[in-house]
Amino acid sequence: MQGLKPYAGLLVVSLEQAVAAPLASCHFAQGGARVIKIEREGEGDFARKYDSAVKGTASYFAWANHGKESLCLDIKRPEDAALLERLLARADIFLQNLAPGAIDRAGFGSEALRRKYPRLITCDISGYGESGAFAEMKAYDFLVQCESGLVAVNGAPGHPGRIGVSVCDIGASMNAIIGLQKALIARGITGQGSAVKLSLFDTAADWMTVPLMHTVYAGKAPQPVGLHHPSIAPYGGFTTADGQVLAISIQNEREWVKLCADVFERPEIAVDPRFCNAAARVKNRPDTDMMVAAYFAKRTRAEMEARLRAASIAYGAVNSVADFASHPALRRAPVTLEDGQEADLVAPPVRHSFEPEIPQLGRVPKVGEHSTAIRAEFA
User: Fold this and answer.
1) Is residue 224 part of a domain?
2) Best CA proximity match to 140, nearest among 163, 169, 165, 170
3) Which of 136, 143, 185, 368 could form a disulfide with 72 if both were Cys (CB 3.0 to 4.6 A apart)?
4) SUPFAM superfamilies under this entry (predicted)?
5) Residue 187: partners with Cβ closer than 8 Å, 6 or more residues away
């Protein structure tokens, strides 16, 4: 079974840009599908110019576009629109994340396409859905983080903060993959394609379920608390004697008793009325944190790690990205860039027994690199 490509034989046509749709279609390319990425003539997907960090290639683009073929089209031209029709007549999946209404105005709306091609699965990724007052709003990742309240529960006290990666784009991509896999299974049962629709806002809203429930039913929204947790203590980063920061997370009373007895060697703290249960520790968080911080400040990181590990207390280092780059648990996989150079991406997080431990990622295509060949093939 080694080397199995479960999506082999599938044709995915993706009219895509930025991150959400490209990352989803890249998953199918990695699984053996043929993915034809449709780009604007000239500059192509604007994500190609986000940065030049990876030996001249944009980091986002290298991450989300390896293993695809690039076809430049202007679907406002009749001959290019006709070529797209021929592609879709043979496609299994059509994925798009253009501005709301753009794909319908171009004559390639998902409902009309599935009437013409009953086995076709369509996937539309939008910012805020396809109807309502926000449908026409631009939906960059940061703005969706703001609108959904994600920034309101992140950051430091009094200073809400953007999450440092494009989580709404990435989450929407993952939801698209889940939706498309369900649609493929459904087609295997019924023989009919179906529509997959999702938005960045719905993705963020799903993640905000717990803060929303606290607000609606308990009358109080969680506030940004930095490395701390609004309802757990001790929980956060504490500085050691040699200037390192270790994070601990005490999830239950058993762990709290072990921390006091086996790490602090002060079992009496566990029954102190100020700290004897989770609610008391949160109520007295300044005192709780001051006590923990004082203990950490007298010992080096190595000493604290040894004590925490011996007591089976959950901990982790608060690493910089540079620290993360040399982390022993970090898995990497090589990718070939547009100009033939190689770089290392983070290896895909899901591992299968039928794939090699270090997967072979496809090459990142140049703008329109496959246009001539595809036009000839689908003439």
Assistant:
1) no
2) 169
3) 368
4) CoA-transferase family III (CaiB/BaiF)
5) 119, 121, 193, 194
139 and 105 fall within a common domain:
yes
Distance CA 164, CA 152 (A): 14
CATH classification of the domain holding 275:
3.30.1540.10
9: left (phi over 0), alpha (psi -120 to 50) or beta: left
Tell me the residue type at 88. L
In order along its 379 residues, the chain shows pLDDT tens digits of 667 899 999 999 999 999 999 999 999 999 999 999 999 988 899 999 999 999 999 999 999 999 999 999 999 999 999 999 999 999 999 999 998 888 989 999 999 999 999 999 999 999 999 888 888 888 899 999 999 999 999 998 888 899 999 999 999 999 999 999 999 999 999 999 999 999 999 999 999 999 999 999 999 888 888 888 888 889 999 999 999 999 999 999 999 999 999 999 999 999 999 999 999 999 999 999 999 999 999 999 999 999 999 999 999 999 999 999 999 999 999 999 999 999 999 999 999 998 888 888 999 999 999 999 999 999 9
Work out the end-to-end distance of the chain between its first and last CA atoms, rounded to an integer number of angstroms.
36
With tokens 């991509």, the residue in question is 173
Number of domains in the chain: 2
Q: CA-CA distance, 250 to 233, in Å (whole number)?
A: 7
Give the domain range for residue 360: 11-208+330-377
DSSP per residue, 269-292: GGGSTTTSSHHHHHHTHHHHHHHH
DSSP assignment of 92-126 equals: SEEEE--STTHHHHTT--HHHHHHHSTT-EEEEEE
Query: Domain with 144 in it: what CATH number?
Result: 3.40.50.10540
The rounded distance, in Å, linking the Cα atoms of 119 and 89 is 9
Cα 112 to Cα 93, 109, 188, 284, distances in angstroms: 14, 6, 21, 61
